[in-house]
UniProtKB/TrEMBL annotation:
Listed InterPro entries: Aliph_Amidase/BUP, C-N_Hydrolase, C-N_Hydrolase_sf
GO molecular function: N-carbamoylputrescine amidase activity
Protein's recorded name: Carbon-nitrogen hydrolase family protein
Keyword rRNA processing: no
Any coiled-coil regions, as ranges: none
Signal peptide, first to last residue: none
GO BP annotations, alphabetical order: putrescine biosynthetic process from arginine
Lineage: superkingdom: Bacteria
Organism of derivation: Labilibaculum manganireducens
């Protein structure tokens, strides 16, 4: 299985332009035969809580059809981030596209304190099952700091933990340590997909990373450039690709 994560520089509030950006990433992921590609938290809007209720949509938004088409054609699972809505509730969500299947949605269950006044917590964890017994547990940012989240993933037989985040230059080192510890404690391969640039008033730290089951850092992008990391679960090879 080949797992791909992206490090993006989001365009504030512009879903259409961010979709075009994501397509460039996916072209590379498909070329590298990735089975799954996950983007950072709220990747299609940037991390913009003040705009979230205006930008919030549903998993059936036709602007997202292009991701379903790419998934169907290339048998790749794709996870993109954006605010979603149901009635009066707004969620921090990852919409997940699987080849010739209905779209899934995973909404952040554990909100950061500053998010509580804007967003509603999600109520259900989801898992993605792949050939070879690989089980992927998605996480969204602050959830990696809540031990119950990774413990629950482990209890449900996840061996791959992918955190879709916005991580600032002030918080990155603490979260790198936490993710390494999650990998080591639960014998999971752990991934973190982060932004560069600025979003939501934060200076984003980049350093999109991969840890092996021993908690050892095996791949990391820099703090300045967009790019992808790809990990092969069989060969343990890590491939780094830049975006032009």
């Amino acid at each position: 299985m080949r797992i791909c994560i992206g490090q993006t520089n989001p365009i504030k509030g512009d879903i259409e332009k961010n979709i075009d950006q994501h397509k460039r990433f996916l072209d590379i992921a498909v070329h590298e035969n990735a089975d799954i590609m996950i983007f950072p938290e709220l990747s299609l809007t940037g991390y913009e809580p003040k705009l979230a209720k205006i930008l919030a949509t549903t998993q059936d938004d036709t602007r997202l059809d292009v991701f379903q088409e790419i998934s169907d054609l290339n048998k790749i699972v794709i996870g993109v981030g954006l605010p979603t809505k149901e009635n009066d509730d707004t969620f921090i969500s990852m919409v997940i596209f699987q080849s010739n299947k209905e779209r899934l949605i995973y909404s952040k269950q554990y909100l950061y304190p500053t998010e509580i006044d804007v967003f509603t917590p999600g109520q259900k964890q989801i898992y993605l099952n792949f050939e070879g017994g690989n089980v992927v547990a998605p996480a969204i940012c602050y959830e990696l700091s809540i031990s119950e989240h990774s413990e629950t993933a482990h209890k449900n037989h996840a061996n791959i933990y992918i955190a879709s985040v916005l991580n600032s230059i002030n918080g990155i080192e603490d979260d790198i340590k936490k993710l390494s510890e999650i990998a080591k404690e639960f014998k999971m391969t752990v991934f973190m997909a982060n932004y560069i640039g600025q979003s939501g008033g934060y200076e984003c730290a980049g350093k999109t990373s991969i840890w092996n089951e021993e908690g050892k850092l095996v791949g990391q992008l820099n703090d300045k450039n967009e790019g992808l990391l790809i990990f092969d679960t069989e060969t343990k090879e890590v491939i780094e690709k830049g975006i032009k």
